[in-house]
């Protein structure tokens, strides 16, 4: 949590250019640091904010935050206004720019500028116009939930796009080398198992692909003729025959997928270790989630209408 305190007690926390810059910088930090889950904006126990410094002005609106660096800001991290004492003028107008307001018994709100012929136009106007309601709907807990759903939907769209493009690339590889789709899935399974140090037997490959024993034997025979897989004795148990990745599969795989591997290396180099760790956690979670859902469907008997 980040606590942001307005601290000009001699001016009743009136906002000048320096405070505007300070508030903008603090809220940029709040939004930019993924370790910060919430911010609290306060003026201390005696006063919240008396609004604009009438002698010196509040400075120019900031690019990200607008007036005071606060009231026009689009945020995804919740911000709480902790109000004690006066929240007058612009100080009051800061309040609706926050997601939650916690007001003490001493809190006093008002717009005294109207007595000087000045219209409140920084933040309070957000409550009164259609644009204001649209802006407000993008902040607060409901807005955060909406943004979370939008982000989830975009991630799903990107995963679907990746799956589609990967399938198209795999189909192109299979077509060029005379492979059936099932052959390609078998080849990928053999490569992955060998990479984990637990090579597949024909029986385990059949279970993985959902094929019968006869169909699996025909598939392995076909791929062995092309040099894509080899049947070898398991060094750990000579009674078992396991499948390994063939030299021909390695050769055509390098030729076709090698440039993609180089492109992937270049892409990965553009991310920090922390970013890559976050992506890895997310993708591992997605794989586990989808695998669990597939297993749940596979264990459920399919009911068919009786003939």
Strand content: 5-15%
Task: Compute the number of helices.
Answer: 9
Distance between the termini: 64 Å
Say how many strands there are: 8
- Mean pLDDT equals 84
Overall geometry comes to elongated
**Order of the strands making up the biggest sheet:** 1-2-3-5
What is the N-to-C order of secondary-structure elements (H for helix, E for strand)? Answer: EHEEEHEEHHHHHEEHH
| Main sheet record | 4 strands, parallel
Unreliable parts: 124-140
Helix/strand-derived class?
A: alpha/beta
What Rg, in angstroms, do the CA atoms define?
31 Å
Helicity level, as a percent range? 40-55%
SSE inventory with pairings:
Elements: E1 2-5, H1 17-32, E2 39-42, E3 79-83, E4 86-88, H2 90-94, E5 100-103, E6 108-110, H3 130-137, H4 140-176, H5 181-195, H6 202-209, H7 213-225, E7 229-234, E8 237-245, H8 247-268, H9 273-298
Parallel strand pairs: 1-2, 2-3, 3-5, 4-6
Antiparallel strand pairs: 7-8
